Amino acid sequence: MRSQTQGKVSGADFGNELHFSYSQLNTYLLCPMKYAHSYVYGSVPEHRPVAMVFGKAIHRAVEQYYLYLKDIEETLPLDHLIDFFRHSFEYGLMDNEIPVSFKEGEKADGLTTQGINLLKLFYTEIEPQHIVAVEMPFSVPIPDTSSDNGEHPIKLVGYFDLIEADSEGTILVGELKTASQRFNTLRLENDLQSTIYSYASSKLNPAMSDGSCLIRFDVLLKTKEPAFERYFVSRSGEDYNRLFELINTLLRAIENRIFYRSTGWQCQGCQFRKTCIG
Fold first, then answer.
1. Pairing relation of β-strands 48-49 and 100-101?
2. What pTM, to 2 d.p., does this model score?
């Protein structure tokens, strides 16, 4: 399993431990062959969707907003927030190692304006509580569902975008998203990232009485009229058990090199499309 799941997650040092992340889980569920190209074969991506560059720039700007609030205990000026986004986006576009791809009708100037408008909305509507941590890495055990009281040698790893606490000390994990459409109930009920974050938080905060954690999605909607919406999600022990079973199943499939093409809408814009077909 080492060659297929191990690697250093950017920004954190998990040492030499074997690890598995939500990104890996989601990639395999989307298309096992894309997982193979991304994490096993070492295939070089053919392009980077501009949406990825845009989302990362928004994310980094908001990260600075929270870090400033946590460390300085003051609100970062809006023009500084916008400048950080602008510079991050421009830098991402100038990175020539892997070309950036645009959808029809997309232009850098238009996306810059869209990002600025979204951040202005975020700045106006966000109501931060006590900031406990920003971009906090986690590494928690994965129960081995094939044995009694056993743990998988692979750790479940990732980052919490934001950890807040209210006046009573109740912990909440916040996750920033940019999206083109609103989240519906079905998506929230089946969202695996929420389950992972809730489980990881419960392991790191065992004092919580119900063994779970409230997750909040802060979603900046890239609709014609920009919008900022919040969705709250909670998970239970049954949700965790379903997650463990799924992860164990996928890890066995990866160990046995079960990689196949899952063709469909996900092929359009895939970063390994030519390599996969060829």
1. parallel
2. 0.89
Q: Which two tokens stand for residue 137?
A: 């890495």
> Does residue 43 form part of some domain?
no
Whether residues 70 and 182 share a domain: the answer is no
Q: Are residue 119 and residue 141 in the same domain, yes or no?
A: no
User: 20 in a domain, yes or no?
Assistant: yes
Model confidence pLDDT, tens digit, residues 115-159: 999 999 999 999 999 999 999 999 999 999 988 778 888 999 999
Q: Where are the beta strands (DSSP E) in the chain?
A: 19-21, 48-49, 100-101, 130-144, 150-165, 171-179, 214-221, 227-233
Q: Within 13 A of 70's CA, how many CA atoms are on the CB side?
A: 15
3-state secondary structure of 153: strand
193 and 141 within one domain = yes
Instruction: Measure Cα distances from 70 to 20, 73, 130, 132, 202 in Å.
Output: 29, 5, 8, 8, 23
The strand pair at 214-221 and 171-179 is best described as parallel
